[in-house]
Write a structure and sequence with these properties.
- The structure holds 2 protein chains of 2 kinds.
- In chain A, 0% of the residues lie in helices and 51% in strands.
- By secondary structure, chain A is mainly β.
- In chain A, strands 2, 4, 5, 6, 9, 10 and 11 form a 7-stranded mixed sheet that branches. In chain A, strands 1-3-8-7 form a 4-stranded antiparallel sheet, with no helix packed on it.
- In chain A, β9 and β10 form a beta hairpin.
- Chain B has no helices and 11 strands.
- Chain B is globular.
- Classes of the chains: A mainly beta, B mainly beta.
- The interface between A and B is medium-sized, with 27 and 23 residues.
Chain lengths: 112, 111
C-alpha cells in the first residue's frame, strides 16, 4: 500500500542531544513538509522541499535541519539549539501544488 | 491578513444542526486553498483543494466555497452527525510550494 510513514511514534531524548525523525513516502510525491504542533496550537511549518537536494525554511526553522537526498525520504533533525523541542511532529507529502497533502501518523518527541 | 486565520477556534453543535466556519488567508500570491479533517488519533485527511475564485466543492453533507479576491473560504456541514466531530484545518498554498495551516476549528457534535 502506498503511504507516508513516520517513525518512531514516540521518542524520548535527553536535553542537549540531537535527534532525527524519519519520514518516508512511497507515493512518488515531489513535495514534502515538516510541521510541528504544540498543545492548543495549529500546525506550524518547519521545513519543506519540492525536489531532491533542495529545501526551504518554513516559519519556525531555527534549531532544526533537514536533508532530501532521496525523493522518498525527508528526515528532520531536532538539534540541541532548539529551545523547546518537546512537541508533536507531523510529516506530509504532496504530488503538486494543486493536489491534496497526505500525512504520516506523527512523532511525539519528549525531551527531558 | 498575513497568516491563515480560522474562526471560531471551537464550536459545539447539536446533532442534526448545520454549521459553518471560516478560513481567512492572504489574498496575494494565492495558489490553492486546502481543507482537512483531523480526527483524534488519526492523520489529517483532505476534504477539498480549491484553486479558482468562486470554486464551490461538495462531498456528501460537507461543502466549501472560495473567494480569493477577498481572501476567505467557508466550510459548511449540513445536518451534523457525531462522526463529524473533529478538528477542521484550512491551509493556504502560497506560490505552489509553501503550505501554511491555520489553527483549526475544533468541532464537537452533541448527541
Amino acid at each position: 500500500d502506498g503511504g507516508i510513514t513516520q517513525s518512531p511514534k514516540y521518542l524520548f531524548r535527553k536535553e542537549g542531544q540531537n535527534v532525527t525523525l524519519s519520514c518516508e513516502q512511497n507515493l512518488n510525491h515531489d513535495a514534502m513538509y515538516w510541521y510541528r504542533q504544540d498543545p492548543g496550537q495549529g500546525l506550524r511549518l518547519i521545513y519543506y522541499s519540492q525536489i531532491v537536494n533542495d529545501f526551504q525554511k518554513g516559519d519556525i526553522a531555527e534549531g532544526y535541519s533537514v536533508s532530501r537526498e532521496k525523493k522518498e525520504s525527508f528526515p528532520l533533525t531536532v538539534t540541541s539549539a532548539q529551545k523547546n523541542p518537546t512537541a508533536f511532529y507531523l510529516c506530509a507529502s504532496m504530488l503538486g501544488g494543486g493536489t491534496e497533502a497526505f500525512f504520516g501518523q506523527g512523532t511525539r518527541l519528549t525531551v527531558v | 491578513i498575513l497568516n491563515v486565520e480560522q474562526s471560531p477556534q471551537s464550536l459545539h453543535v447539536q446533532e442534526g444542526d448545520s454549521t459553518n466556519f471560516t478560513c481567512s488567508f492572504p489574498s496575494s500570491n494565492f495558489y490553492a486553498l486546502h481543507w482537512y479533517r483531523w480526527e483524534t488519533a488519526k492523520s489529517p485527511e483532505a476534504l477539498f483543494v480549491m484553486t479558482l475564485n468562486g470554486d464551490e466543492k461538495k462531498k456528501g453533507r460537507i461543502s466549501a466555497t472560495l473567494n480569493t479576491k477577498e481572501g476567505y473560504s467557508y466550510l459548511y456541514i449540513k445536518g451534523s452527525q457525531p462522526e463529524d466531530s473533529a478538528t477542521y484545518l484550512c491551509a493556504f498554498m502560497r506560490g505552489a510550494q509553501k503550505l501554511v495551516f491555520g489553527q483549526g476549528t475544533r468541532l464537537t457534535i452533541n448527541p
